[in-house]
Amino acid sequence: MPSKIVLDSNVIAAIFFREDGVSEVAEKIVEEYSSYYTLDLAIAEITNVAWKKVVFEREPVEIVKNGLEKSIEFITSVCEVVSSAELYDFAFKIAVERNLSAYDSLFVALSAKYNLPLATSDRKLFEKVDNGILVRQK
């Protein structure tokens, strides 16, 4: 069994906010690995996902809030959370070289720092990383 993996925000969100074709695969990734790394940035990004669920998708606030709370608990209790401040310089270099957003580059930098695969459901990001796992069903 592989032991460690980096989870980007959209993979964590997919575990707690159902997304067809992604949630099932994200859950399998978590079952296959025993240690998870993510960024402090994931908290802000998943909070934004929850906001979009309520405002744009008109999902009930209490259900979304429950998913948000479980997401944050997973991040703070189960994951090794790395500060974006530790990686910004390396991430900036990656962003410029690979034409990626700074947000995505921070996850790539985290993956590279620990030499771990990066699980993402973002195809554009997956195509620009060296050691990625695309979390989507075919």
Structure in a nutshell:
The protein is α/β, with parallel strands linked by helices. The protein has one domain: 5'-nuclease (Rossmann fold, 3-Layer(aba) Sandwich), CATH 3.40.50. It is built from seven helices and five strands.
Q: Count all strands and give the number.
A: 5
User: CATH class, anyone?
Assistant: Alpha Beta
Estimated helix fraction? 55-70%
Shape: globular
What fold name goes in the CATH topology slot?
Rossmann fold
How far do the termini sit from each other?
23 Å
- Which ranges are low-confidence, i.e. pLDDT below 50, for 5 or more consecutive residues? none
User: Structural class, from helix and strand content?
Assistant: alpha/beta
Report the mean per-residue pLDDT as an integer.
94
Q: Roughly what fraction of the amino acids lie in strands?
A: 5-15%
**Number of DSSP helices?**
7
- What is the CATH H-level superfamily? 5'-nuclease
Largest sheet: 5 strands, parallel
